[in-house]
Structures
1.
Amino acid sequence: MRNKASQIGFTFLIFFQLLFGGKEVLPDFLQKKVLELYSQNLKVNSNDIKLQVYHTPPITKESIKDLKVTITPQSQSLNPGYQRLQIKTWRNQQLQNSYSITMKVTAQIPVLLASKKIRFGEAITPDKTSLKKIEIDRKLDKFFLSQPQQKDLISTQLIRKNEMIKKSMVKSKPDVKRGAQVKVHLISGAILIKTEGRIRRDCSIGESVQVTLESSRRSLRGQVKNPDLVVVNLQ
């Protein structure tokens, strides 16, 4: 409950500061530390990172002289977008003070783009894609930051030229396509009945899938054993 209330408060604070804030500046020594932190985590040059600060803590270089300073994200991850960082000062492993910074982080990060139009169902291959620095102000887990290692990716929608390729736009090429005719083995104890059916959706080997029997039009769920065989265990 406390975490939820804290998140609601943080969201309200961001909304309020979007309207009335965003022009504060971190002290030079603190900005350098924050930029170094994001540069190491995002693997980009600090010159490619911009900080839009909404709240600056009452901290000066003199006030932390001879103290150890730690900076950690409240969300436990360093991403572009709206962030709140916790700054703590220590002496002899004893906490002296705790501050917070609220800001928006924007970074120029290489992401995967379509170098040509990619139609629905087409393979995602290096000759159709390229990496280009784009200004990002949101979490990176939705994007490809390098050429995909997976070789069997296909598009799930039309991807226009120069459009960022999000992970939600692709999927693994199915081992069996929807509507494919397969052999179906119906097993009940020691009894085996062989028939045929059609797959109800795209699927991969090992997946559980609905198959419609050719003889009765009945739909049963079974496991894809290979591209030509689905096994149904009858209870």
2.
Amino acid sequence: MKKMNGTKRLMTVLLIVVFVALTGAVLTGAQSVSRAKEALSRISPVTYTEESREAIEDATQAVRALDTGLGLSELFDLEALTAAQVEYIRLAIRDLYLTLETGSETEILEKMQIARALVDGWLLPEDTERISNLGDLVEVENAYQTAAPAIKETEPEEEELELCGI
């Protein structure tokens, strides 16, 4: 049996390392696709419940975790996810609006913050126009911004500094 010289041994080890790394990437990609498919299948029907929010959040995270370099997110119809996000946000804003009549200021502010966080966290700016009652959220935000005392951090006054001419 012939002995391998140092260069051949190094090349063999490098090929094995590359093969293992590529195999791992393919398996990880396949697992990510499987996880995203499963998460997307759990989002329907959309109701304003914690279970529905968790299903949409899981699907959102699973899709965002897909390796964009491999084009894995293109395997999915992301319209269904966006539609579910929009519907859940619409229901959250509706819940906020219903709370205006009977809820405390604390409840209203909490629901307003939740609705805004969902809009900003889930949707791309171009998708926000699909929320049919987004104007209601903006209206409540504006009303509570002007009604509540503004808490502003006091900025230190600018001091005039004397600079030495060099």
3.
Amino acid sequence: MKEQDLKRDLLVERQKVKIPKKAIFHAIDEGIQQAKPDISKRFSIQIVAAVVLVGIIGTGISGVADGLFAKEEHPMEVVRFYDGMSISPEKNDRAKAFVMEKGIGYWANGEKSVEADPKEEDILIEPGIYDVSLSEGEIGEAMGRGVLLPGETYSGYFFGEGNYGEVVWGDASLQFTPAVFEPLEKIGEQYVLKNKFGEFEVGAAIEPGIYQVDVEDASAFSMGWSVSVFTEHTMKNGDTFSDGATFSQKEFGGRVIELRVGALLRIARKYQSEDKSETASLSGNYEGVPPQVKITMKLIEEE
């Protein structure tokens, strides 16, 4: 049965009886999965930090969605990620451009989020939402958000009041500029994202809904390289749930994810040595070829 026929039949059936979304998406996954049988079709994403960053916003991940973030499983209302914050896309006038050099600590102005004594050489910068790119170097980590090459940008990096950051991996310097909040380009019923990385607000940068996500030629990536595509939903009670997938030489094929209004869609190119040690990245010795990333997100059901 073709994917679109399966989806249509399931949606017609939903008009007669209540079928949990998770069951529908499991069926779709069964029809489109191309990975090896022992590969998990959907799993929670673990964020690998590439930089010391203290005082992350919110209460942290207090729950992780097992599979698709479904209303039947998580009936609490989803709220906007930026709700109640002093910094948001509408309130980002404090952000000022700066260059982050390796070996120097950077503190965002405001009450410190941890007990720490800044070093004399540390630099005070303004909090805000920033677009991050390389100012020096051929390859570098974007503050724990994945690997960037010259000419690429990680969009929408949140540097909150009292937060601390420094370049830890690689030898690149990072250029921070106040974020330009542009919507992702939609062609027909899908988004085609080429080397597009960052944090994108659902409902502003991308339409809400249920998407089939594919990463072109992920099975041909060099060992250690991957692309993560996941969402972070904030509940009204403060809990946070994540859902998404990693695409790599070992894990590939179509996945289905749900994007709700106010959530963040995070996309990053990542590297981890085969033995999962940090040695290679800490020294900037990345093995293999950094993949060119082409992501297709096809809207299969509107919210």
